[in-house]
Amino acid sequence: MRLLRRWGLVIIVLALAIGASGFYAPRPAAAAPWTALKLYFPETGHHLGGEFLQAWLTRGGLMVFGYPISEPFTQDGLVVQYFERARFEHHPEYAGTPYEVLVTLLGNWITEERRHEPAFRPLPPQTAEWVKNDPDRVFFPETGHTLAYGFKRYWEQHGGLYTFGYPISEEFSEVNPDTGQVYTVQYFERARFEYHPEYAGTEYEVLLGRLGAQYAQARRVNTASVPQAADAMPVPPGLVDPRWSRAVGSDDGAVFGAVTADELLIRSAPRADAPVVGTTWRRHPVAIRGIVQGQEMYGTSIWYELGPGRYVSSAWIEPLVPHEPPAIYAGHWVDVSLSSFYAVAYDGYRPVYVAIITAGRDGKTPTGVFQVLYRVRNETMDAATVGIPRGAPGYYYLENVQFTQYFKYGGYAIHGNYWTPPSQFGGFTSNGCVGLQNPDAEWFWNFLNVGSVVSIHY
């Protein structure tokens, strides 16, 4: 069945690094400085806090994992917590890496007795040749299965191997045990995908099966609700926004939001009267590294920590979900949208960073797929070198331009832009280059290299 292609982004850091499992192992990263907070979910009557809360909030939230259906407890020698679609495991031996919270291989568990069925039988190795020229299908020799169309899109844009593991079946029709409805499904090492045509074109077109609830029932886990603890607060509505499941997330445990206020002051503490330590502007990305409860602002007492001593009210932040790139490339590459004015860094299909840009006036920024040709750490840009003589319209002379990465001859580059006020980023203000604020330009300098793909489009 050809599934509808859709857009979705989520970066989940819950991965298993054991070689025998065949899982993708992302590079280790320091744990983000998330502040302790305990939330209570009245929908199921359970709490979520600590490392499990951090993982749930930053790696997919409600859309990927569902509500908590148990309190944390010890099982199989680990502290675990059950969710509708997953079970979290706390691994203190991996503290300070992306593996401190792992997700149980529930896809493997629930299909253990079904591997003899036709959909689970591995395809022959020559399948790789049959599908290599099909951009809508990929073959995984590790498990002998393919992934295509809508499920492929969802898998790629929600983390892929990093989130779900390899496919362990082909697509087939199956009765949903909760609803009794027949859906097109596919199993992965950690999940079951279900295609819901009744939700076509919405956030819910592809949903994950409730494997966590099924596993809890099989293990006779107590899922009865508990009273709200004195040190907990009801989960704010903004934190269950389904768009957080598609927001850009970084390798070091941050998740990106976008500013909705024209101008937003960054405070030294989660209070409106705390000293101002910075300013950001509408549509600018902010890397959220913690969540705390502070002074109530416009109906919410949740504040986001952007770093030590840097807080903004969540009332003015929404999930930053970038536009779908026209294509996906291997390795480190960057997608530049001249419609959204965001440059999004990708590691394969995983978006790991986002920055707001300036672009060329009057269509001067070229569109297409380019590669970084050469790089200059610090230079003087003189328009005379690209055919614009001194005194002519459009002439410029700029010293100390930082982190320049040229992708097209004629002077087209990604580079730091210190002469445009930050409040004016997010528009056409340049002579053709893709301008970044210097901290962002430095980040991209360290991420890209000669040969890296630069995709630019509207």
Overall structural domain count? 3
Give the N-terminus to C-terminus distance in angstroms.
Answer: 31 Å
The spatial strand order of the largest sheet comes to 24-23-22-32-26
Please summarize the sheet with the most strands: 5 strands, mixed
**Percent range of helical residues:** 10-25%
Rg is: 23 Å
Assembly classification: single chain
Structural class: mainly beta
The helix tally amounts to 7
What are the low-pLDDT stretches, counting only 5+ consecutive residues below 50? 1-31
- How large is the share of residues in beta strands? 25-35%
The total of beta strands comes to 32
Mass-distribution shape: globular
Average residue pLDDT: 89
Pfam families: YkuD (PF03734)
Keywords: Cell shape, Cell wall biogenesis/degradation, Peptidoglycan synthesis, Transferase
GO cellular component, one term: extracellular region
GO molecular function: peptidoglycan L,D-transpeptidase activity; transferase activity
Commentary on this structure:
The active site is at 415 (proton donor/acceptor), 433 (nucleophile). Belongs to the YkuD family. Keywords: Cell shape, Cell wall biogenesis/degradation, Peptidoglycan synthesis, Transferase. GO terms for molecular function: peptidoglycan L,D-transpeptidase activity; transferase activity. This protein has 458 residues and is mainly beta. It has three domains: 1-235, no CATH class; 254-319, SH3 type barrels (Roll); 332-457, L,D-transpeptidase catalytic domain-like, CATH 2.40.440.10. The protein contains seven helices and 32 strands. The chain has helices at residues 50-58, 61-65, 106-110, 127-131, 149-157, 211-218, 438-447; strands at residues 38-41, 46-49, 73-75, 78-82, 87-90, 101-103, 137-140, 145-148, 172-175, 182-187, 192-195, 206-208, 233-234, 255-259, 263-267, 276-281, 285-288, 290-297, 300-307, 310-313, 317-319, 332-337, 342-347, 350-356, 358-360, 368-371, 374-382, 397-408, 412-416, 427-430, 434-436, 453-457. The strands form ten sheets. Strands 24-23-22-32-26 form a five-stranded mixed β-sheet, with helices on one face. Strands 3-4-5-6 form a four-stranded antiparallel β-sheet, with helices on both faces. A hairpin with a 4-residue loop joins β22 and β23. The chain starts with 37 loop residues before the first strand and ends with a strand. The model is unreliable at 1-31 (pLDDT under 50).
